[in-house]
Design brief:
Distance between the termini: 95 Å
Oligomer: single chain
Number of helices: 2
Shape: elongated
CATH topology of the largest domain: Immunoglobulin-like
CATH class of the largest domain: Mainly Beta
Strand content: 35-45%
């Protein structure tokens, strides 16, 4: 009886090993693999939201050159936080054809489903965070919707930004005859009277056109615990080499203001002190 049991066990393992070997010797045909991959791709593409983004004629003059176009999708009713899916485009021309689908989700495995608010935003500084003056448009769509249209017909006014944000315009003095090619505009905020050292907040704006409307606030702070508040010195520097440190050919202006001020005017027209 014992020998019979051992024989049965041996036979079972022999058959199991043979089956495994058979599977290894007969892998899935390449044609079948391709068919499965194609079906998966078609299924994902069938969920894409496809359409066109247009620039409202009334806003055409407000569209910055070399702007970056962001397209993001969030669940309907959600206005902040990480999007479900997103895309970034540069050097776009309107009307601009787009698609957004499962292949664009921010985190692998995130379902691309249900009603979504799709936002297209033309961003002047290439930063994913919206800023004052950005053009945008929205629509509600479902996965698989085709021939949708998003019109860039609204201007971001930063209503959700902290009230301490400073808004204003940077312009050039008439004595500045030309802007050096490749020059970069820097904005720095320090405590009132402080001219050197790390700023409280800063922005770098390449290819700025003047007059340039700006905002500078808590979202631009350099350190996690920094507070953008109180009396401030704001420096606007037109930097010839694109580096944050001041150089002999840079032009700048400094104004004293307070957090929350609007309509601030900064006129650049004099050489910056070295090392500031």
């Amino acid at each position: 009886m014992k020998q019979l049991v051992l024989f049965c066990i041996f036979s079972f393992f022999f058959l199991l090993t043979a089956c495994e070997q058979e599977l290894k010797e007969h892998p899935m045909p390449i044609a079948m693999k391709r068919q499965i991959q194609q079906e998966t791709t078609v299924s994902a593409q069938g969920q894409d939201i496809v359409g066109v983004i247009t620039l409202d004629e009334r806003r055409a003059k407000e569209a910055p050159e070399n702007a970056v176009l962001f397209i993001v999708a969030r669940p309907e009713g959600v206005t902040s936080g990480p999007p479900i899916a997103a895309k970034r485009f540069s050097l776009v021309k309107f009307p601009f054809s787009f698609s957004l689908g499962p292949g664009d989700v921010m985190r692998p495995g995130t379902p691309f489903e249900g009603k979504m608010t799709v936002t297209a935003r033309l961003d002047s500084d290439g930063n994913a965070q919206p800023m004052f003056g950005d053009l945008f448009g929205t629509l509600t769509a479902l996965p698989g919707d085709q021939q949708v249209e998003i019109a860039l017909d609204q201007v971001y006014v930063a209503s959700e930004e902290p009230s301490t944000t400073v808004y204003g315009t940077v312009s050039l003095d008439p004595s500045v005859s030309a802007v050096k090619e490749g020059a970069v505009l820097f904005l720095f905020a320090r405590a009132e009277g402080v001219r050197r050292g790390p700023p409280i907040a800063a922005k770098r704006i390449p290819d700025a056109t003047f007059p340039y409307e700006f905002s500078l606030g808590q979202t631009d702070t350099m350190m996690p615990n920094a507070v953008f508040d109180g009396k401030l010195s704001i420096t606007a520097r037109l930097d010839s080499d694109g580096l944050a440190g001041a150089g002999p050919d840079d032009l700048e202006a400094v104004i004293e203001t307070s957090a929350g001020q609007k309509g601030v005017n900064i006129v650049i027209g004099q050489a910056s002190p070295a090392g500031s």
